[in-house]
Amino acid sequence: MSKQPHINTTAGQIAKHVIVCGEPDRVNRIAAFLDNAELIADNREYRVINGFYHNQMVTVCSTGIGAPSAIIALEELNNCGAKFIVRVGSAGALQADIGLGDLIIAEAAVRDEGGSKAYVDAQFPAYASHRLVAGLEASIVQQAYPAHSGMVRSHDSFYTDDEDKICQYWSEKGVLGADMETSALFTVGKLRGLQVAAVLNNVVLYQQDVKDGVNQYISADEVMLKGERAGIKAALHALSLQI
After folding, report:
1. CA angle 208, 203, 216 (to 5 degrees)
2. Which of 143, 179, 181, 221 could be bridged to 91 by S-S, CB 3.0 to 4.6 A?
3. Cβ atoms within 10 Å, residue 242
4. Could you report the per-residue pLDDT of 159-186, keeping only the tens digit for each?
5. Do 171 and 150 form a contact (C-beta atoms < 8 A)?
6. Calpha distance 17→35 (Å, rounded)
7. Are the CB atoms for 57 and 240 separated by under 8 Å?
8. Of the candidates 16, 15, 24, 19, the residue with the CA atom closest to the CA atom of residue 237
9. How far apart (Å, rounded) are the C-alpha atoms in residues 173 and 165?
10. For 20-78, what is each residue's pLDDT tens digit?
């Protein structure tokens, strides 16, 4: 197989077990939990590192922001042999009881992004791998880390004119948080026969200004970094259970 055009890898370079994240620098932070980590490719928003966790090869790949670039990564990872994918991402809370740095385990997602709709009608559900969700939850219980399991919403912009009303609507429906990639990964992953899950670190309190929340995250607030580390540990544990 020829090299993939975006992630710049071939079949022999990608593990069955994959962690994806939006930010390329987060790939490096995840790789710190692996043995013998090695940079495989770095192109545009896609940085790929391989390493080992409990003697099991794991690939870490960044996807950039939003559904289209996340789907490109998923498709090309699938072409190279990925079977189990966990997104270690960030989200903004849609419930008042979700604190900064709390984790959200996405059991399913509202498909408010356009990328997955290019594949299948909006009625098609976006839901996580039960096997991977069970592994995430087991790790988080073991860590005694604050977490919430349920529905999230994925969308294409948090700067829309009616954003406050949109967030209030989905909050009233019990949706836990919002990101930009999870529903696309669940949907296209299901269509491609992959096992996909997501654990999201809350970086914005409900009804907090998005810009303020993101700026806090950029400043590496220790609470949110703890959430990221807990999410990484949970993802690695969940993947390690899959054979």
Report:
1. 80
2. 179
3. 16
4. 999 999 999 999 999 999 999 999 999 9
5. no
6. 15
7. no
8. 19
9. 13
10. 999 999 999 999 999 999 999 999 999 999 999 999 999 999 999 999 999 999 999 99
